[in-house]
Write a structure and sequence with these properties.
heterodimer, A: mainly beta, Immunoglobulin-like, seven-stranded mixed beta sheet, globular, B: mainly beta, six-stranded mixed beta sheet, four-stranded antiparallel beta sheet, about 5% helix
């Protein structure tokens, strides 16, 4: 089973604060993803990447930056956090072989912006 | 664009009754992969079922689904609900050449099983 870890698991910041969420996968998957999950909205894709140095824009990218520094590591950056970004954030990875794109999710980071 | 539509909102069932959660999809790609993910309370989503083959039943952990390309459907079923089936269920679509690595998720269906 693929291993995806996230840190921190919980984060509280203030409006205007600077936050970095980290994700690491140890299975050499090509694709990595950042989602947010909010009641009533399901899983929404923020950004994703298909390799080190690559970044693709997702469906709800406003207010977020991301960077894929290595095959294993994918970071989500909130440079001026707002209360609307209070959410549960999931990172996921996928091999993408054969087009299956089966995704493995990390444990999530709960972010609160006061 | 591509989309996935699921049974809306909350489905409440009594333990022992059959479960059916609907999923239909739209895509221009003729060979999509379809997935069901399950998310229990305070956990992350995990894969429950996946299918690529038309009209072939896929089973896992008591759940089953059949991809029907003629009706663009991939409904999730179980013959007898258990209390432990209470969770949030997502249907998802993958059509790699067109969506460049994205999974298209439905909005999710919350299943609540009562004793």
């Amino acid at each position: 089973e693929a291993a995806v870890t996230q840190s921190p698991r919980n984060k509280v910041t203030v409006t205007g604060g600077n936050v970095t969420l980290s994700c690491r996968q140890t299975n050499s998957h090509n694709y990595m993803y950042w989602y947010r999950q909010d009641t009533g909205h399901g899983l929404r894709l923020i950004h994703y990447s298909y390799g080190a140095g690559n970044l693709q824009i997702g469906d709800v990218p406003d207010g977020y930056k991301a960077t894929r520094t290595t095959q294993e590591d994918f970071f989500l950056l909130l440079e001026l956090a707002s209360p609307s970004q209070t959410s549960l954030y999931f990172c996921a990875s996928s091999d993408g072989t054969g087009g299956a794109l089966e995704q493995y999710f990390g444990p999530g980071t709960r972010l609160t912006v006061l | 664009g591509d989309s996935v539509t699921q049974t809306e909102g909350l489905v409440t069932l009594t333990e022992g009754l059959p479960v059916m959660l609907n999923c239909t999809y739209q895509t221009i790609y003729s060979n999509p992969f379809l997935f069901w993910y399950v998310q229990h309370l305070n956990e992350s989503p995990r894969l429950l079922l996946k299918s690529f083959t038309d009209n072939k039943r896929t089973e896992h952990q008591g759940f089953h689904a059949t991809l029907h390309k003629s009706s663009s459907s991939f409904h999730l079923q179980k013959s007898s609900a258990q209390l432990s089936d209470s969770a949030l269920y997502y249907c998802a679509l993958s059509d790699l050449p067109y969506n460049q690595g994205k999974l298209i998720f439905g909005q999710g269906t919350k299943l609540s099983i009562k004793p």
